[in-house]
Write a structure and sequence with these properties.
The chain is built from five helices and eight strands. With about 180 residues, the protein is of the alpha+beta class. The chain has one domain (about 1-175): Cyclic phosphodiesterase (Cyclic Phosphodiesterase, Chain: A), CATH 3.90.1140.10. Strands 2-1-7-8 form a four-stranded antiparallel β-sheet, with helices on one face.
Length: about 180
């Protein structure tokens, strides 16, 4: 089983998601990030034995419950070649959450750090495809969408997948905090 952890930003991007879905269908991009809520990942997906998954999930839930709501500021929509994503401004609290979660998972369960965990670019994926021309066309159609400036974050997501492929993940738990 594969696990993944994130914060939800889906409520802020309903209109963008609808437009992106239409563009995805029109261009045949094949992988739009539509099977999950729009989110900012905190930990790159990782494989665990099924027998350990419940303990790891419970540890993450307990950690998330210790946190307080916070805000992040969107920066811009970026065409990163094979990925179209929304970049966020640097946010020390988000970095703290990601690095602390990774540290807990590493120390308690020997979950290795992925190279992206060490220098993560906080973003929300809109499209992914190896064909850069499709990403370019999608970007041209969505680039003028006005992004919300400040997003209030109080929902954490836990997802899982049997095989770890991006389009196979589903949210198995949402943790809402209101402190």
């Amino acid at each position: 089983m594969y696990l993944w952890f994130a914060v939800s930003v889906d409520d802020y991007y309903k209109e963008l998601k609808e437009k992106a879905f239409k563009v995805n269908d029109e261009l045949g991009i094949e992988f739009g990030a539509f099977n999950l809520p729009y989110h900012i990942s905190l930990k790159i997906s990782f494989e665990v034995e099924d027998i350990h998954a419940k303990k790891i999930i419970n540890t993450a839930i307990e950690f998330f419950k210790t946190l307080k709501p916070f805000t992040v500021n969107s920066s811009y929509m970026e065409n990163n070649g094979t990925i179209l994503w929304i970049r966020y401004q640097d946010n020390e609290y988000l970095k703290y959450i990601g690095s602390t979660l990774n540290k807990i998972l590493n120390e308690k369960y020997s979950i290795p750090y992925h190279e992206y965990d060490l220098d993560f670019i906080y973003h929300t994926t809109i499209f992914m495809n190896d064909d850069k021309s499709l990403i370019n066309k999608g970007y041209e159609r969505l680039k003028d969408f006005e992004l919300p400036k400040e997003l209030y974050i109080n929902k954490f997501l836990i997802g899982s997948s049997e095989d770890g492929l991006p389009h196979t993940f589903k949210v198995i738990k949402e943790i809402k905090i209101d402190k």
